[in-house]
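[Structure tokenization] protein backbone as discrete codes
[Encoding] learned vocabulary of local backbone shapes
[Protein] chain in single-letter code, fold in tokens
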Amino acid sequence: MANLRHLLKDTAIYGLSSIVGRFLNYLLVPLYTHCMPTSSGDYGISTNVYAYVALILVILTFGMETTLFRFGSDEKARPDTVFSTSFALVAALSLAFLALVAGFITPISEALGYEAHHSYLLMMAAVVCMDAMQAIPFSYLRLRKQPIRFASLKLLFIVLNIALNCLYFLVLHKTQVYYIFLVNLWCTAFVSLLFLPMLFRIRWRVDWRLLRRMLSYSWPLLVLGIAGILNQTADKVIFPLVYPDKQEAQVQLGIYGACVKIAMIMAMITQAFRYAYEPIVFAKQRDKDAKEYYASAMKFFLIFTLLAFLCVVGYMPLLKHIIGAGYREGLRVVPIVMGAEIMMGVYFNLSFWYKLIDRTIYGAWFSAAGCLVLFAVNIWGIPRYGYMACAWGGFAGYGVAMVLSYIVGQRKNPIRYPLRSMAVYTLLALVLFLCMQYTAKSLTTPWQLCLNTGLILAFALYIVREALPLRRR
């Protein structure tokens, strides 16, 4: 139980930077959706460009974040050597990417449909280059168990980002998507400068033999990461390419992108859990009770994500005001996207069996299978059903990857997950969600909020009674 308490504490600290930061970023959603009209399609452009950024960031980091934990946790390893070797690789890839974009900006812009906006792509290429290089120092802080410093730097970026956005959009009355990208560039550059003292303190040594071992471990993680990020962003990349009306595509993508922001509270919880859990998993793998610990962590992850799901859908009459009125028609995607995020979190928990036995190729296959399902649903469904196909495509893709990882994992490295109790929690949450949906049209907003609060409290009380008294275990 001491390890679970340590996990809870670190998750809370990492969650401060993730959840509080994302909440503060929510303040930007009404700012953007009120300042940029739905018809302009500018928010759709932002959604589309950031989807490409997320994909490129995964490629440039080359799986080195998890690889840093794997080799840095080795008792015989020198952490500074592991850090400098991984950083050298990521820095080389990132700078080469930036040079490539700058050298071929015209054909790249034309291919992506931004021939009149070269500056958008140049700014975001610089941002993704710096973000990729920052990923290694941030991972090193997690490896060295420095969550407060990690959280402080993350929050600093967010506060500065919000301040500059308010300056441009509220004070200077700028309404173009150009200024979203410009602010991101300034903030990312500032945080990069703050890492310089840390980089100067490192004893730099690139170990080429170690690099070969790290690459052997990381390249399946790269494939896994690409497939995983495509599960999150492919719909936003594909949408303008397959939707019949190109201008309307940006409008619809803006609506979808704005509504997905509300569902991203699940991604915050998963990310906070991942930041705390990943280093612990590798450190604990030699303990006798490791598998029991992994099973308990999975159960509590599912419990609290289901509680978060009910809170979001239950208070949707209030949360919907985060986005502008012109974007609210897309709110029906929120429960679907949140369900997909829960399955993604479960898949992340399941993924450690192949990471711990150095068979990361399995993760690449599982994620690739999920990605193929997502592509198929989106390509077939977007022309017919618009952004609803995007939501269901992600749900189906994560579901396939999760099921495959569980089935194969139970054969290769079996863990006795408490499936019965996990199923009960899931079924109970589903029943409560359906009650909320069924009564939504017949009740006024105050009564609906009262009923939903009661249902959420009932679920919370069930958790307290069945799962939380850890002292008895």
